[in-house]
């Protein structure tokens, strides 16, 4: 059971009602993560465009973004984000077998070198970003431009943010 209940649409602050309407239209309901975030209307209002620009814009293919997001969610044990991003991963081109093999990607033949580099980077950023050194970044440079490394890092950081928010507040998974 969630530590904090999502705010129902009829009690939502006026400035976030358009977000409620848009997300309800997209998902058939207001997702719990955003309903809980609505306790701080200004945060929800500002988070949505930031999150959207990180996830939906840029030049890194959606497949690699979803791969990094799912790896981060699995490392953190975030059921909410794992469930929410599994369909997105499939839509972006990840197979069910790849999604199941993310935890043991290093020895898997299901991932190419770019996918493995992406997964390693997600793991390194999530487990200890301060420990990342030049050799790890050089591996990424084989596959990504500097702009894309920034973009991929933002995806991993957004995943860590949502993972921790969902888990700390024990938000009930309702997506995916």
Describe the structure using short key phrases:
single chain, mainly alpha, 9 helices, 65% helix
Verbal overview:
With 176 residues, the chain is mostly helical. It contains 9 helices and no strands. The longest helix is centred in the C-terminal third of the chain and has 23 residues, at 146-168. The model has no long low-confidence stretch (mean pLDDT 96).
Summed up, what is this model?
The protein is 65% helix and 0% strand. It is mainly alpha-helical and 176 residues long.
Quantity of strands, as a count: 0
Outline the biggest β-sheet: none
Unreliable segments of 5+ consecutive residues: none
H/E series: HHHHHHHHH
Mean pLDDT comes to: 96
What is the 3D form?
elongated
Please bin the fraction of helical residues.
55-70%
CA-to-CA gap between the ends? 18 Å
Q: Taking Cα atoms only, what radius of gyration do you get, to the nearest Å? A: 17 Å
Strand content: under 5%
Query: Structural class, please?
Result: mainly alpha
Number of helices: 9
